[in-house]
Amino acid sequence: MTRPYVYLVCVLFGFLTLSCSQDYPATAPYTPTSNPNDPNTSPGQFPRPEAKRLYLSNDKVKVGIDLNMGGAITYLAEATSSQNMINNYDLGRQLQTSLYGGPYPYSVNGKDPVYVWRNLGWNPVQAGDYYNHPARIISYQQSQNKLYVKTVPLIWPLFNESADCIMEHWLELQGNTVHVKSRTTVQRADTTQYDGRTQEMPCVYTNAPWYRQVTYTGAQPFTNGALTELSEHDMISHYTTENWSALLNTEGRGVGLYQANQFRFVTLASGSGQVGGEFDMTSYYMSANGFMQIDHNGVYEFDYTLIVGSLADIRQYAYSQPRPATLPNFRFTTDRQGWYYYNVHDKGWPIQNELAIRWQRVDTTRANFRVCSPFVFWRPTELPKLYVQAAFTTKATTARLVWRKPGEIDFYDVPERYVDFPIVGDGQFRTYEIALQGRNGWDGIINQICLLNPENNLEKGSTMRLRSVTATQP
Question: CATH code for 6-320?
Answer without folding.
Answer: 2.70.98
